Amino acid sequence: MASGSLPAGFAAAAAFIVSLTIVWTTTFGIGYFGNPSLSMTERVLAAQFSILLVTISASVLAALFAEIRDKRRLAEAALHASETQRYLIETERLAALGGLVAGVAHEISSPIGTSLTVASTLAHRSADFTDKIASGSVRRALLVEFADDCRGATEQLVANLQRAGGLIQSFRQVAVDRSSDNRRAFDLKLATEQVIASMQSRLLKSQSSLAIEMPPDIIMDSFPGPYGQVLTNLIFNAITHGFTDGPGGHMLIRARRLVMEQVEITFADDGSGIPDEVQRHVFDPFFTTGRAKGSIGLGLYIVHNVVTQQLGGRIKLVSAPGKGTTICMTLPLFAPGQEEPTTTAGRFKT
């Protein structure tokens, strides 16, 4: 017998014992139910009434015990579901960060590899030129050629190393923001460009393009890490579910300032769109149309939670089959969670 059914079993056993005692005392003339001043009919009726009361009481107790047991089971199930959901969300975040690391590593390998090739070639040319100087066979034309080669090589080295440095800088900031939920003041356009720069390999692999239309003067005092997580999930969702009819598509991120210290950020794609019956569930946890492809249905659920809870904003989705999807987020320039400093009040005025 399960532990949850023990109290109900005890109640039933107690009721049976009490009823048996009443019948026994009535039959053998012991106690109240065996009172010789009462007729047998009166004693039997009193015994029957008492047994009925005991049975009803036992039934009520059993029902209460069952209700308590069911509530405890529901609470345990809810706690387990909450812990499982929290684990899956954290796993999703770590998977996104792992994909970010792999993408940036792939992007950095290209300019670093090119720089290594150019540097090796330049070293070989320098060694040859040194030998020719030693042999005394250096002519003016050879000197001009070597100088041109050096200039071209240095230009390539500077360009590729600057590209690698920019990728590392973007990745470093995005990684720091992702690994913590600390708030800070940041430029919205710059933060968005850093997130997109760290995802270029995924965009190229999917043959998708992503454009930004943002003014450069939107300063937010908010959480850049969660904001980057939102963008990452939206981009991955569009690539995975929106561009299923062809080799990639086009995405656009727009931002504009609103009154009341707010900013409107719009993410749009020209993908396959979302049917009406699916739109009602896109922000539900574990809802996905791509479970056969390994999706667990937490991408847009995380987006909704981060936007509405941590960033203190609102989010809505507009879509139609064959007409793409647009997700509009309205965020406060100063995220909730602490009092706004008086020194930043003027900075956010429109």
| Count, helices | 8
CATH class of one domain: Alpha Beta
Shape: elongated
Q: Output the strand order for the largest sheet.
A: 2-4-5-7-6
Look up the CATH topology of one domain: Heat Shock Protein 90
Produce a short descriptive summary.
The chain has 350 residues and is an alpha+beta fold. It has helices at residues 6-28, 40-135, 140-179, 188-197, 200-205, 224-242, 276-279, 299-310, and strands spanning 184-187, 209-213, 219-222, 250-258, 262-269, 314-319, 325-332.
Tell me about this structure:
There is one protein chain. The protein is an alpha+beta fold. Among the domains are: 85 residues; 140 residues, 2-Layer Sandwich (Heat Shock Protein 90), CATH 3.30.565. Helices cover 60% and strands 13% of the residues. The protein is built from eight helices and seven strands. The strands form two sheets. It has a five-stranded mixed beta sheet, with helices on one face. The C terminus is likely disordered.
Give the arrangement of secondary structure elements.
Blueprint: H1 6-28, H2 40-135, H3 140-179, E1 184-187, H4 188-197, H5 200-205, E2 209-213, E3 219-222, H6 224-242, E4 250-258, E5 262-269, H7 276-279, H8 299-310, E6 314-319, E7 325-332
Parallel strand pairs: 2-4
Antiparallel strand pairs: 1-3, 4-5, 5-7, 6-7
Helix pairs in contact: 1-2, 2-3, 3-4, 3-6, 4-6, 6-8
